[in-house]
Amino acid sequence: MVTSSVLGFPRMGGNRELKKATEAYWAGKISAEELIETGKNLRASHWKIQKDAGAGTIASNDFSFYDHVLDHIQLFNAVPNRYRKYNLPAIDEFFAMGRGLQRAATESSPAVDVPALEMVKWFDSNYHYVRPTLQDNQTFSLATDPKPVHEFLEAKAQGVTTRPVLVGPVSFLHLGKPDRGASVDPITLLENLLPTYIELLTKLKEAGAETVQIDEPILVLDLPSKTKAAFKTAYAKIAAAGASIPAITVATYFGDIVHNIDVLPSLSAVSAIHVDLVRNPEQLDTVIAALAPGQILSAGVVNGRNIWKTNFHEALTIVDKAVEALGADRVVVATSSSLLHTPHTLASEKNLPAEVAGWFSFASEKAKEVAIIAKAVTEGVDSVKNELDANASSMHSRATSARTNDPAVKERQSKVTPSMYERLSPFTQRIAAQQAHLGLPLFPTTTIGSFPQTKEIRVARQKFGKGVISAAEYESFIEKEIELVVREQEALGLDVLVHGEPERNDMVQYFGERLTGYVFTNFGWVQSYGSRCVRPPIVVGDISRPAPMTVRESKYAASITSKPMKGMLTGPITCLRWSFPRDDVHQSVQAEQLALALRDEVVDLEAAGVNVIQVDEPALREGLPLRSGKERDAYLDWAVKSFRLATTGVKDVTQIHSHFCYSEFQDFFHAITALDADVLSIENSKSDAKLLKVFEDEAYPRHIGPGVYDIHSPRVPPQEEIKARIEEMLQIPQARAALDQP
Ligand code: MET
Ligand SMILES: [Zn+2]
């Protein structure tokens, strides 16, 4: 019999109950007990949803109050002493690591002042995990009342036998880093970690767990040979524990494991291997051939990273093939990854256009999908005939909808010519025209764009949304906000002004609402980090721009000052990455459509007298495929092309800026250069000066705007500090050379 499994469920709850409770706890409005109770209720409800959906294997320990990697830091007592020394209650120590803690002394406790641990992106998703930060001679031990055991028993008491999920020992270390001042290579700590790991597995077995899911997602990355060797050490030790630990499923996702297939023999003692067959269906044959005798394949065929309904026909083709090779008892139908990256349920969405609502599946619906597919294989397609028919007609409706196919957009894409990727003149000529036109000083100053979204702004937007105030009233409110921002910048003596973006609800949604091809949810929240959630708009069809999107505000702003005004747009890659993209056409096609829409906007801004235009691409880097090589080159090729298509429609005199919130360009600097932006605004307030060395090494030929004021921190940097940062930057010969130009 083919069974089904869900690798993990979103934590927030249908109404973001977890966000609300954690933030209330941080604000001192609810007690730790109340917060813990909320967590317990959410877990119970999530297990029930999956059970009712018919999912066979349901995860536990997928829940977290902040981040699951952070859970493991505490679980293995790998808490740096700067947190531990305060002897905080476990939950407070946990949040202190996640988000830092600053607390004045009281009668009973000393003052606490400790920054957060580093947080970084989880593979190529928009979820962020807390990085294990390890010491030389790091020791590990098991926390009291280990969370995975606790939550397993909690589910069991509710009548659900779950499969606890753990971050694997090799991935845990590989994803970590040495603490400041330490020089340890994390993977060398494996021998120290394994006894704790095995102790935990033993406790899970004693609690009644028959299986555990051990996530080793790093198997999809390019790995150094010592990390590959670590799998052998780790899983030999784990196998030696024999019957005193549960059966193990090793899970990989977000890529294929073909390039690491030689690691599989090291995993021969585990009972199942999970692979992502949504991203990489072509790995199926290689993985099947590499399985140990009797080993089970967990086939990830329901996408954990998007909101699209699974194509049952395609999923069944893959699963049938696996069953044919291995037999029904050795195949499990699973989600491709945890459903953490999908919203809670489609059932809450009441405002989606009727036609498109049937195209989606959120987490709760995806749990049903794995069950249906497994049933179709086990009992035959007739046993789920209605579901399969409904699915096929939904696929058909989407493929043939006028919403997904706009012939005018396709026509325009077919007419893109090579010259549309090129500015009229090379940079040296352009910059001369721009300098003559803009008349800027030697070190022009500017900001990245948005001024605070005040309560007043939000209230006005809400009133406008509800029809309490008219469009004209809202527009004049926005104009007043713009004027305040402009006067403020004039008073400060800034050189290139911005309008402050008061009209934008979000840097992607705002554009999505003005383009065809997008739809929006009311509750489609996805955890980004800690209590922070994002609600990505959904690209459902071909994208076009019926009318200008930002010209009104930028033109108004330019009209009330004699200083140059900078127009502000979100770039094609960022619009795409921070949305749920379509899965029926390649992302490069969607990026090109966005680029053409933005190209029109750029040209319209120029025509309106806006001669500095910033096209933000903060998401360019996160789209970078996880492994170097062909796939990464292909991505950079279409990403760069889409940026150029969006920005090259202007005259020499118009200065194109781009902005990135980071300056880690080492792996793909050639692409940054290839953007051909006149000015590149990058992060330079926190970043290591050595990151900027790449500009020197690669002889970057254009202008740079080093961001010297950290906008994420409430701290006001002293002038001297800013000056020192700029002087550091001037050590780069290219920067010096730029100064010598007229
Ligand atoms: C995340 S990058 C943000 C850029 C945008 N122009 C802003 O200032 O909000
Ligand atoms: Zn930014």
Tag the structure with descriptive keywords.
742 residues, TIM Barrel, 8-stranded parallel β-barrel, 5-stranded parallel β-sheet, 27 helices, 41% helix, 13% strand, binds zinc ion
Protein described:
- With 742 residues, the chain is an alpha/beta fold.
- It folds into two domains: 3-66 and 135-400, Alpha-Beta Barrel (TIM Barrel), CATH 3.20.20.210; 407-413 and 425-661, Alpha-Beta Barrel (TIM Barrel), CATH 3.20.20.
- Helix content is 41%, strand content 13%.
- It has 27 helices and 23 strands.
- The strands form seven sheets. Strands 1-2-8-10-11-12-13-14 form an eight-stranded parallel beta barrel, surrounded by seven helices. A five-stranded parallel β-sheet has the order 19-20-21-22-23.
- β5 and β6 (128-130) form a beta hairpin.
- α22 (587-607) runs parallel beside α23 (630-647).
- The protein is globular and about 80 Å long.
- The structure holds methionine (MET) and zinc ion.
- It is an enzyme of class 2 (transferase).
- It comes from Choiromyces venosus 120613-1.
- Residues 4-323 form the Cobalamin-independent methionine synthase MetE N-terminal domain.
